[in-house]
Design brief:
By secondary structure, the protein is an alpha/beta fold. It has a single domain (2-120), classed as Transcription Regulator spoIIAA. The protein has helices at residues 24-35, 60-68, 85-98, 112-120, and strands spanning 2-8, 13-22, 45-56, 78-81, 106-109.
């Protein structure tokens, strides 16, 4: 898996792009790398662009572990950008496990533009 993070402090958005085959270990490593970034803030909205993910070896237990270490505050919005139906479903499960979907601060969308438009909407 390849994971990159770009933090836009002006817009207060974290852009995370994942590609390849996602494993739990690599997802944890990507999260730790984000946490160590000097510009990281848990208050920023986050886009998880996973359109380049070809497969994921994540189980429900793996997603639960990732949800528990999610560094973004519940008050911030997160959007998963996915086009693959399986990855889309995993994104939905992640939102449910973090509890952010029920708070209205999580969505799975099909484009970055859709995520950015949602971030601009009033709460």
């Amino acid at each position: 898996m390849t994971a990159t993070h770009q933090i836009d402090q002006e817009q207060r958005i974290i852009f995370s792009v994942w590609s390849g085959i996602v494993t739990l270990e690599e997802a944890i490593s990507a999260t730790r790398a984000l946490l160590s970034a000097p510009a990281f803030s848990p208050h920023y909205n986050r886009i998880y662009d996973v359109r380049g993910v070809t497969d994921a070896t994540l189980t429900k237990a793996s997603l639960m572990e990732l949800a528990q270490m999610d560094p973004i505050y519940p008050s911030a919005r997160r959007a998963v950008v996915a086009t693959n139906p399986t990855i889309f479903g995993m994104g939905r499960m992640f939102g449910l496990l973090t509890g952010t979907e029920e708070r209205g601060s999580f969505r799975v969308v099909s484009s970055v533009e859709e995520a950015l438009d949602w971030f601009k909407e009033p709460r």
